[in-house]
Write a structure and sequence with these properties.
It is built from 6 helices and 2 strands; from the N terminus they run H-H-H-H-E-E-H-H. It is mainly alpha-helical and 194 residues long. A two-stranded antiparallel sheet has the order 1-2. Strand 1 and strand 2 form a beta hairpin.
């Protein structure tokens, strides 16, 4: 049925396989990173060296996947929203999508900036050195950026978690109250895809 709709309207009826794959892999990584970050808050600094390196490694991989996802999203058309959604609902949906993409970029980027401002090395999974963001010596000497970045990174992570919760609630609303096909557009196909 979805293929017929696509042929008749010229609009994709669901996200393509790459978009679906990136959505769910990044979602799992983001949930893992939030959980790991919360856990690290309760581990003494003296015992958290491995956890910090692991958090940085997964964060960099997530950031790279997000860059791929944004490029893919900009070059591949998304399926249209249901026609019966109001203009206000469409604006909210588009705004939420934009915010989620921004947070997916800014949270790992601020983590990278944070460790760069502290001149902390990043060694991806203990194997490959990742470059720090080059900062002016005056910024490094003042130490101000190093002081504020942990709070900025944490605040962004917490607000990102809030927007993720709203995103999940919206998905549940579409699935169980509106009972439309919005959620099906991003779910992997099962069996024959029917």
């Amino acid at each position: 049925m979805s293929e017929k709709v696509e042929m008749m309207t010229g609009e994709p009826s669901r996200h393509n396989a790459v978009s679906i794959f990136l959505h769910w892999v990044i979602a799992l990584l983001v949930f893992f990173m939030i959980g790991l970050g919360l856990y690290m808050d309760h581990v003494p600094v003296s015992n958290s060296g491995f956890l910090h390196q692991f958090h940085k490694s997964v964060g960099i991989v997530t950031m790279l996947l997000i860059v791929v996802r944004v490029i893919w999203r900009l070059t591949h058309k998304a399926p249209a929203l249901p026609k019966d959604l109001s203009a206000a609902q469409r604006v909210v949906a588009g705004g939420m999508e934009g915010l989620l993409y921004l947070y997916q970029i800014f949270v790992p980027a601020t983590g990278w900036l944070m460790v760069s401002s502290m001149a902390m090395p990043i060694v991806l999974f203990g194997l490959v050195s990742w470059p720090l963001i080059p900062l002016p010596q005056s910024v490094m000497d003042s130490g101000t950026l190093a002081e504020v970045m942990p709070d900025i990174h944490n605040w962004l992570a917490w607000t990102f978690g809030g927007f993720i919760a709203l995103h999940v609630l919206a998905a549940l609303y579409h699935r169980f109250i509106r009972k439309d096909q919005v959620v099906n557009r991003i779910l992997p196909r099962h069996g024959s895809g029917r």
